[in-house]
Amino acid sequence: MNVRKISVLIIGTIGVILILSVCKSRHNIENNQVAGNLAGIALTSVGGKSGAVIREKMYAQERILSDSLAGKVKIETINRNESLKITFCSDSLFVSNSNTIQEPSKKSLQRLAVLLNEYPDTDILVIGHTDRTGLADFNRTLSEKRAESVGHYLTEQGVASERISCAGKGFQHPVSDNFSNEGRTSNRRLEIYIIAGEKMIQEARNVKR
Q1: pLDDT band at 207, cuts 50/70/90?
Q2: What confidence category does residue 23 fall into, taking pLDDT thresholds of 50, 70 and 90?
Q3: pLDDT digit string (tens) for 148-170?
Q4: How far from chain centre, in Å, is Cα 179?
């Protein structure tokens, strides 16, 4: 899978999208008015009646994922419940200091890919994070490679590559402290965002409620 890097800056009501390294092609995440900033990634929510249609679809996907990935990952609705965020612990997902996906974790990614293929009108952001151990450049590169490895694996499971974007944030967006083993473990993570694609948004706007 070809990978390229781009920098995108969007200013205004949409917010700011930071530097992303892209799997195959960029996901257009500046679809609408309201932006939410999560780990340096700007997400937009549609809102109104159209947003309610999208929320119903995201709730349905959340229920499926909660059943198929129970105990394996953290699943939550975000962005006014119009997007999903799935968090994997990097320690269980990858070999230490490597972007090689461990065999047991591939089953979870395969189950995720099944759902992504059942809902083809969503786009996917794969974001890698590390703890603060080591040099910044090493950690950013490692987080990028890990995100790209997962993006590539999902395409091997049949997910269209044009739906997937990847980025590595290094240790810039911790969710815990970097002084304890527990805190560093929490910071070493991989996040997958499931976001309404343009087709889903347009269909939601056309629904009469």
Answers
A1: confident
A2: low
A3: 999 999 999 999 999 999 999 99
A4: 26
Angstrom distance (rounded) from CA 133 to CA 62: 33
Which pLDDT belongs to residue 87?
Answer: 97
Residue pair 155/50 in contact by the 8 Å Cβ criterion? no
CB atoms within 10 A of CB 161: 14
Judged by phi (left if over 0) then psi (alpha if -120 to 50, else beta), residue 111 lies in: alpha
SS (H, E, C) the chain: CCEEEECCCCCCCCCCCCCEEEECCCCCCCCCCEEEEECCEEEEECCHHHHHHHHHHHHHHHHHHHHHCCCCCEEEEECCCCEEEEEEEHHHHECCCCCCECHHHHHHHHHHHHHHHHCCCEEEEEEEECCCCCCHHHHHHHHHHHHHHHHHHHHHCCCCHHHEEEEECCCCCCCCCCCCHHHHHHHCEEEEEEEECHHHHHHHHHCCC
Residue 32 pLDDT exceeds 50: no
Question: Could you give the CA distance from residue 93 to residue 105 in angstroms, rounded to a whole number?
Answer: 5
